[in-house]
Design a protein that fits this description.
The protein has about 200 residues and is of the alpha/beta class. The protein has 5 helices and 7 strands. The protein has a 7-stranded mixed sheet.
Length: about 200
């Protein structure tokens, strides 16, 4: 291969790499501006809201799902309450902090309907059967080792009232979560990658 052919091949590789990088950036921007809200609404739409629910958001981050659930309670003029639990690691999400979540709750005018708890999912400080609904989106995979993820799922099952619902959404380990919940006698329904 002569030098001009090598140069042309190198230029084509750089252009292709640049286009892939640009496409990845555009897809990420689409998710940030539209996709995450649609997914939140999809998840929350799986539950028949009454307004009196006690809701737990596991790995609430800056509060996207927590805000959505709390607004559902507020729209129904309900007596419900939402709790967000997180360790607020900025390694997993830039700008992630309890202060950022509190700010978002205040901006939405719903902070009086929410409580934030700074604890890992595998060490929930709540009594057994405390919640009517447990929700979690893109959290549990951040727990690196399987034994600790199992403890987190055990905690979700423990704090959920009998016969109530957990909606867990993630991009990996979902079969692991479903298998463990079946072992704990939960019925599992898979919808577009989310378990209910």
């Amino acid at each position: 291969m002569n030098i001009s052919a090598q140069l042309l091949l190198a230029c084509l590789c750089l252009i292709a790499g640049g286009l892939l990088f640009l496409l990845g950036g555009l897809l990420f921007l689409l998710y940030v501006k539209i996709g995450k809200f649609r997914h939140r609404d999809f998840m929350l739409g799986m539950h028949a809201w009454r307004g009196d629910e006690r809701v737990l958001d596991v790995g609430c981050g800056r509060g996207l799902l927590l805000v959505g659930a709390t607004k559902m309670i507020a729209q129904l003029n309900g007596s419900g309450h939402a709790t967000g639990i997180d360790i607020w690691s900025d390694t997993d999400m830039a700008g992630n902090s309890a202060a950022a979540t509190e700010k978002n709750l205040k901006l939405e005018g719903i902070s009086q309907l929410c409580t934030l708890v700074s604890k890992p999912a595998q060490e929930m400080p709540f009594a057994d059967a405390s919640f009517d609904l447990v929700i979690s989106n893109l959290c549990l995979h951040n727990i690196r080792d399987r034994a600790t993820r199992r403890r987190a799922i055990d905690q979700i099952a423990r704090v959920l009232k009998p016969g109530m619902t957990a909606i867990l959404s993630d991009f990996k380990f979902t079969d692991e979560y479903a298998r463990q919940l079946r072992e704990l006698r939960f019925s599992i329904e898979k919808r577009r990658g989310s378990f209910i």
